[in-house]
Task: structure prediction
Amino acid sequence: HPAGDGAFDAIAPDADRHLLAYANDALISPSLAISIPEVASDRMLAHVAALARESGRIFQTHANEHLIAVERSLVVRGMRPIELLASVGALNPSTLLAHATLMTPRELSQVRDQGAAVAYNPVASAWKGNAVLNAVQLHELGVPFALGTDGTRYDAFRLMDMAETAQRLTLGLAAGDFSCGGGWMWLDHATHLGAEAVGLGGLTGAIQEGLAADFLLIDLAVPEMQPSWDLSWELVRLADRSQIDAVFVNGALRLWQGWPVDWNARALLADVARIAREDIAGAPIQRIHPVSAAHRQASK
Result:
């Protein structure tokens, strides 16, 4: 596709086609995304956000994650990323902001007042961010948020643990907050409140009539959780994916003890490993730090 002003006429029809292609899919809910606000024109930002809202879908974008991103937006567009979205009408209940860790009070008010949602990505904050989102503050202000990764965290239980731990270490301890959400808050934002934040509240997120039968069977009879004193906190801090015996999606058993029941995942992973090694070997990657084994040897 062309860049600059010429991109709109080329890209906009693709957005319509994408939403239509999955409009009636039982398992896929399509969304639209622009990587970061400052790379798109005002016209494109407004159009994509409006299209998502009109179709009942989600418009995703990374916003206010790094200092460099905020500074780049100020230099290129004269506004911080969330301010830019608000100025062109692209901040609305269909908007899902990834990260949003570097929010000014004004931007926080814009997010709250316009009904936008946030993806809280604690792993990304630990690995490559400049700050941790004040998720408890969002909860108290009624700003929808879901737990996300934007990084490698294959275990949703460990993600909840990371979300609470990041909040406690960066914000809770300084304020003398010994609860940091009370356990239940993290469970809610990992399930039904998370589903609402990403536009799926009418489809999934809870066990109730009218929603898809999406659920896990979890073994709680493990040494770390017996005897049980506070199940909500134990699920946040102690549980892990090894306790998930079964995964049901839309009423059908999809995984049993970590593996699909109706297709060969091991064969797929073998193909992925082979292709990844070949692609990485030929990629122009500059490694700043050596791999762990080499780093250990060099440190002796």
Notes: The beta strands are 31-33, 58-63, 95-99, 117-120, 145-147, 215-218, 244-249, 252-256, 259-260. The mean pLDDT is 94. The longest helix spans residues 156-175. The chain has 13 helices and nine strands.
